[in-house]
Write a structure and sequence with these properties.
The structure holds 2 protein chains of 2 kinds. By secondary structure, chain A is an alpha/beta fold. Chain A has one domain: Aldolase class I (TIM Barrel), CATH 3.20.20. In chain A, strands 1-4-5-6-7-10-11-12 form an 8-stranded parallel barrel, surrounded by 6 helices. In chain A, strand 2 and strand 3 form a beta hairpin. Chain A starts with a strand and ends with a helix. Chain B has a single domain, classed as Class I glutamine amidotransferase (GATase) domain (Rossmann fold, 3-Layer(aba) Sandwich). In chain B, the strands form 2 sheets. Chain B has a 9-stranded mixed beta sheet with strand order 2-1-3-4-12-11-10-7-8. Chain B has a 3-stranded mixed beta sheet with strand order 5-6-9. In chain B, helix 1 links the parallel strand 1 and strand 2. The chains are: A alpha/beta, B alpha/beta.
Chain lengths: 255, 203
């Protein structure tokens, strides 16, 4: 049986790992090389690192740092941030990455999704959809780490990126990010039922049972989270943690 | 021992090199005939697309040499994910002719109830033994990330399978040629053990 995945999603800013609240208020978490090594030792299902400054600063990936982080990732590793060309896709993968996460380019240059999928296969291309409510409360796609609002509907965007060749969607709720309020299950359900590629839910997990709800109630194939994997609790003291394989099994078999 | 990881244009070379090092081997990414000639083992990496991988091998002028080393000289060869899919005649992912080392073809995963790509940890099972499976527990979880899968013409060459809307080849074996649909370089202790078993193969 294919098991649901639980993915620590780590945010990189100027070479350090940080955690945000609603994509703002960065709090220092630690050294990326060290923390990826810890999640690798804890046997996380996958680890994702997203550079949240690259797209805002219109920079490409920091390759020397990426190679160092990747060398610590004995588990499947995804990277996003500042990917603007197919050459970036090639170089990111070569650094020791299995999946490339693209967000801004999926909005500003959708042709890149197709070119990247032709080059690396759809299974290696994850589109991150950073969703935020607009002034009317309607969920809309944002670009450049949530700083640029668009009028794109997330359901339409999900279908479109699948059509363009994306192999997976990272569905990120900007409004729930770092809030511990739980996932936006309604949004997850709507997106997951609109596409046939896997959907990774992200944004708002406040307790481990939220991870399960994203899968069982939301229909996501994977649940990603930042805060609950790097903080002890909502007081934001840093304690890197990950459920053991036995605990994970327990979530899905016992209940 | 030195493992040549064939440059297929796009791949997670760093991950494979790190894992081979952890399994006790030394590896290098190879683009030239000299690289292939001196290799004790050959790895065709995964992550990538069928035509791009074959075109890159052809552009480097390595198709005939690789075929000689693998088929005639019987150099131990491991294809990972896409790397295995290159072994056969053809793939629904591309138009070019495959390497033709193992009779078979690559087809798209298709199942209306399951999501494609097949991404994540899934149980790998087998019924008969093979030295590639030594010290690995049947039913152990390995990491898959693929939209296509390889079907050898001879079912006996499938030495382990995974269930994803039916049985899919997880490991194939054709003499000195081994293919895994999962990524051993990212599959924890089971994956590492498989790499160790591969590195122990001699021609």
């Amino acid at each position: 049986m294919l098991e649901p995945r639980f993915i620590p999603l780590l945010l990189l800013a100027h070479g350090a790992l940080v955690k945000t609240v609603r994509f703002a208020d960065s709090n220092y978490v630690g050294d990326p090389i060290n923390i990826v090594n810890i999640f690798s030792t804890l046997e996380a299902d996958e680890v994702m690192v997203v550079d949240i400054e690259a797209a805002v600063g219109r920079r490409g990936p920091d390759y020397p740092l990426l190679r160092q982080i990747a060398s610590e990732a004995q588990v499947p590793f995804g990277y996003g941030g500042g990917i603007g060309t197919v050459e970036d896709v090639r170089e990111v993968l070569a650094a020791g990455v299995e999946k490339v996460v693209v967000s801004t380019a999926a909005v500003e240059n959708p042709g890149l999704i197709t070119a990247a999928a032709d080059l690396a296969g759809s299974q290696a291309i994850v589109v991150s959809m950073d969703v935020k409510a607009d002034a009317h409360g309607r969920p809309r796609i944002t670009a450049r780490s949530g700083t640029v609002m668009t009028d794109i509907d997330p359901i339409a965007h999900a279908r479109r990126v699948q059509e363009l060749g994306a192999g997976e969607i990272l569905l990120m709720s900007v409004d729930r990010d770092g809030t511990f309020e739980g996932y936006d299950l309604d949004l997850i359900r709507r997106v997951a039922s609109a596409v046939t590629i896997p959907v990774i839910a992200c944004g708002g997990a406040g307790k481990r049972s939220d991870l399960r709800r994203a899968i069982v109630e939301g229909g996501a194939s994977a649940a990603a989270a930042g805060s609950i994997f790097v903080y002890q609790k909502s007081n934001r003291s840093v304690v890197v943690n990950y459920p053991s394989q036995a605990e994970l099994k327990d979530y899905f078999v016992a209940r | 021992m030195s493992v040549a990881i064939v440059d297929t244009g796009v791949a997670n070379f760093g991950s494979i090199q790190n894992a081979i090092a952890r399994a006790g081997g030394t590896s290098f990414v190879s683009r030239t005939s000299a690289d292939i000639e001196r290799a004790s083992h050959i790895v065709l990496p995964g992550v990538g697309s069928f035509d791009i991988a074959l075109r890159t091998i052809d552009e480097h002028g390595l198709r005939d040499l690789l075929t000689r080393k693998v088929v005639q000289d019987r150099v131990p060869t491991l294809g990972i994910c896409l790397g295995m899919q290159l072994f056969g005649r053809s793939s629904e992912e591309g138009r070019l002719a495959g390497l033709g080392w193992v009779a078979g073809r690559t087809v798209k995963l298709s199942n209306r109830e399951l999501r494609v790509p097949h991404i994540g940890w899934n149980a790998v099972n087998w019924s008969t033994g093979d030295n590639m499976l030594e010290s690995i527990e049947p039913g152990g979880r390995f990491y898959f990330v693929h939209s296509y899968h390889y079907e050898p013409d001879s079912a006996e060459e499938v030495i382990a399978h995974v269930d994803y809307g039916g049985q899919v080849a997880a490991i194939i074996r054709h003499g000195n040629i081994v293919g895994t649909q999962f990524h051993p370089e990212k599959s924890r202790t089971g994956g590492l053990q498989l790499l160790r078993n591969f590195l122990r193969m001699k021609n």
